[in-house]
Amino acid sequence: MIMSASEANMRKICKSKHGFTMMEIIVVVAIIVILAAVIAISASQYLNAGKDMEADISSMQESVDSAKNNLNQEFVDLGY
Q: Can you say how many angstroms the Cα of residue 77 is from the centroid of all Cα atoms in its chain?
């Protein structure tokens, strides 16, 4: 049986299409795990920075409230 060149090429293509190898799948999964770990670490750092900022804002708000109270007391003392 003699095959033409196009039939031979077609058989080569069909034989080589068996899916992914186990090594390819392991490499892809490893890359996904590494990216997920990097994203998780970055997210936790941003969340911690946000909590620190929230504490700073609360401290500033307490200072502003205290300053308002002091000013109101001074005005009351002056008779305004």
A: 54
Number of domains in the chain: 1
Q: What angle do CA 11, 15, 16 make, to 5 degrees?
A: 120
Residue 1 lies in a domain: no
Cα separation of 37 and 43, whole Å?
A: 10
For residue 71, being part of any structural domain is answered with yes
pTM over 0.70: no
Give the residue-averaged pLDDT of 29-43. 96
Q: Which position has the token pair 């308002």?
A: 68
Task: Flag whether 2 is in a domain.
Answer: no
Tokens of 8: 């031979």
